[in-house]
Amino acid sequence: MKVTDHFANAEGKTLVSFEVLPPLKGGSMQTIFDILDPLMEFKPPFIDVTYHREEYLYVKRQSGYYEKVAIRKRPGTVGICASLMFHYGVDTVPHLICGGFTKEETENALIDLNFLNITNVLALRGDARQFEDKFVAEEGGHPFAIDLVKQISDMNAGKYLDDTISNGQKTDFCIGVAGYPEKHFEAPNLGLDLEKTKAKIDAGAHYIVTQMFFDNSKYFEYVDKCRAAGITVPIVPGLKPLTRGYQLNSIPRKFFVNMPDDLVKAAEQCKDEAAIKALGIEWCVAQSRELKDAGVPCLHYYTMGDAATTRKIIEQVY
Ligand code: FAD
Description:
Blueprint: H1 3-10, E1 15-20, H2 29-36, E2 46-49, E3 55-60, E4 66-71, H3 77-88, E5 91-97, H4 103-115, E6 120-124, H5 145-156, E7 174-179, H6 190-202, E8 207-210, H7 216-228, E9 235-236, E10 238-239, H8 247-255, H9 261-269, H10 273-293, E11 298-302, H11 307-317
Parallel strand pairs: 1-2, 1-11, 2-5, 5-6, 6-7, 7-8, 8-9, 10-11
Antiparallel strand pairs: 3-4
Helix pairs in contact: 4-5, 5-6, 10-11
Flavin-adenine dinucleotide is lined by residues 50-51, 95, 97, 124-127, 144-146, 178, 184, 186-187, 193, 196, 200, 209, 211, 238.
């Protein structure tokens, strides 16, 4: 079933969903089951699986020289989605990115998803490769998420890249896109970023999932701005708790989001890592409760492989 149908069927009840990462290459599906088994009693209608493009590594060869090699450390997104559907009978949302894909490869991936009866996709651009200072599209690939949304919308209309196909099967993908309550880091300002987000919706996207945030007022203001800009689709808040002290700096650096003063000051008072984790859980519970009371369609948790923490939060919210 489509993500937006789940929202419609919930009739105003706030759902809960999870995002998992594929295991590192060489790992097994059991790693994912171990994360999700303790969380399935909360009945997520869908589970997101992230996509990771190749990274460059420098490998020392016998000659003593270093060779630059491209390695995809976390492959398997599509297979994991199919496996989760089979194992738990749950819907899945594979993330699909522009980076590293030509349009043909994207089309083939979408055909695979369609044949597997996976009807949801989160369409993203992806980030710059390691050691590159800006995102560079694959030759023959898409430069922005909106171009990926357009390609998926075309397939939903039965239009394939090969224009000799006149009677192609119309796919029926529900398309999600990313939104940034505190602005995407490359955008000159939030207003211009919102225009680009609105363009993704106008191109056929059906819902938005936000970047994590630690101050709910950022989310509420963002939703108001989206509505004022004419964006009417569901906007799902993405949540991740603070779990380690170093994240006070690493999360803002990596995800370009602010940590509220009160959270930082409280974390600075913590005597050890266990206290920081307890604070992070308490903070995320408070965020979740307020969002749920406000009637958001779904609370989407970035599990980051930590089922126990995610579970402790949801137990106190549902
Ligand atoms: P876009 O919507 O293309 O926007 C990127 C930037 O370009 C923005 O600054 C926007 O304002 C600007 N822009 C957009 N269109 C245009 C245009 N036509 N002209 C000029 N500027 C434009 N990354 C992964 O690699 N794998 C994942 O699985 C993954 N999952 C994610 C899930 C969520 C919920 C979120 C919020 C992010 C995720 N990311 C993932 C990270 C994401 O790929 C990065 O944030 C990336 O930098 C931007 O992706 P986007 O889809 O928002 O890009």
